[in-house]
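hiii so my PI (J.) wants the whole complex modelled not just the main chain, which honestly fair. so below is everything: three entries, each one labled with what it is. i double checked the lines twice but i was tired so who knows lol
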Amino acid sequence: MRVLGGADVSTLRFDPTRTVHAAMVVLDAQSLAPLGEAGASRSGGLPYIPGLLGFREVPVLAEAFAKLPVRPDLILVDGHGLAHPRGLGVACHLGVVLDVPTIGVAKSILVGRVQGALPDEAGAQAPLVWQDRQIGVALRTRRGANPLYVSIGHRVSLATALRWVLALGRGRRLPEPTRLAHEAASRVRLAATAIAE
DNA sequence: GCGACAG
DNA sequence: ATCTTGTCGC
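here's the output for the full assembly
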């Protein structure tokens, strides 16, 4: 494992043009030092529809991916992977399209419920279950913060996904790749709207 | 029919 | 998802 990637998008709350600004970042897996980033914007796509997030975000994320200076060996995606009504969240979707291993890292639940208690301590975890099946894990990365929901994306086991997210926390709620991608996507949006003026 | 509902 | 400074708590 040499290079890690992070993927996220930024949108305006009410945007008639439905423009989605995407960003992908790459960082050294060892030091977590940023290696580069790329962005892309696209309008006229689908609106946000729970369960169909991949169809809205993957096309523009793939566009950003093509501009990356280095190909990541593993990508952390902001959103669910397997923890989805049809087992095909945006993380799985992106992984299949790019043919790159992915992990789903969501900030809230789409389907399922957390089984058991989740202590308010960093590292605490509990199964995310849906229809009598474990589809992911609720992981408290920081005490006092709402948990993250980690699930399989593409070609990565849940155990491995969990290990990565735990290792990339850096004392903050979001793992570094996703955190940087979120900031990058926000910059892509701000820059695009500034130029449009 | 009603409520839930990643970003 | 985004709007936003100060503020409450460890």
